[in-house]
Amino acid sequence: MSDVKIEHPNRRKASSKLARLVVIVLLLASAAVTAIVTIGGWSVLEGAKALSVAFILVYVVLAFFVARWSRGVLPMAAGVAVILGIFAAVAAPGWFDRDADGFTDPALSADVLGLLCVLLVPLQVALIIVAMQGFRQRWNVEAERPRREAEPAPA
User: Fold this and answer.
1) What is the pLDDT of the chain when averaged over all its residues?
2) Which is it for strands 143-146 and 4-7: parallel, antiparallel or unpaired?
3) In this structure, are residues 117 and 95 in contact, taking their beta carbons and an 8 Å threshold?
4) Facing residues of 7 across strands?
5) Cys bridge to 103: 19, 98, 127, 154, which one at CB 3.0-4.6 A?
6) Residue 152 gets which letter from DSSP?
7) d(CA 71, CA 9)
8) Is there a contact between 106 and 36 (Cβ–Cβ < 8 Å)?
9) Residue 149 and residue 151: Cα distance in Å, rounded?
């Protein structure tokens, strides 16, 4: 058995734990809103079905890795959030325009889907900010401690 124990001191900080929790919540909330828009508008989505499902899966996988303290996925989460935020900002007016005559009605109201797309934009901005703050916290820093110091003495 090794006489050295590896510790990650930055992971014990309350700010790091909070940043990790907020990133996970924002990733899962983004995946949920994207899933609602995808399912609610499935009948009228023309080319974006596979892309929407891909975003949902990527966000869930990213949340899993952030939960395991993987610092490297935080910039990737921010980058994907930029792309999804742009798509949501571009899609929102299209959903609101579907109120006119001659359009097929989606499962959810087009206004609700438009509102969800509008809400997805600030959600992505928040995800970018918090993910980059978490990246700055250096979760990957390791410190070697002798096992005698790291573990309490047996009683």
Assistant:
1) 86
2) antiparallel
3) yes
4) 143
5) 98
6) P
7) 14
8) no
9) 6
**pTM of the entire predicted model:** 0.84
Residue with tokens 């969800």: 116
Query: Which residues, at least 6 apart from 53, have a Cβ–Cβ distance to it below 8 Å?
Result: 38
Q: How far is it, in rounded angstroms, from Cα 22 to Cα 89? A: 23
Residues of the chain with pLDDT > 70: what percent? Answer: 88
**Which residue, 22, 28, 89, 20, is CA-closest to 58?**
28
How much is the average pLDDT of 58-86? 94
Between 14-40 and 73-97, two packed helices, what is the crossing angle to 10 degrees? 30
Confidence bin at 16 (pLDDT 50/70/90) = confident
> Three-class SS of residue 144?
strand
| In 41-138, alpha helices (H) | 49-67, 73-97, 110-136
CA 91, 93, 99, 100 torsion: positive or negative?
negative
Residue owning tokens 């579907």:
98
Position 78 pLDDT exceeds 80: yes
pLDDT in tens, 27-54: 999 999 999 999 988 877 777 789 999 9
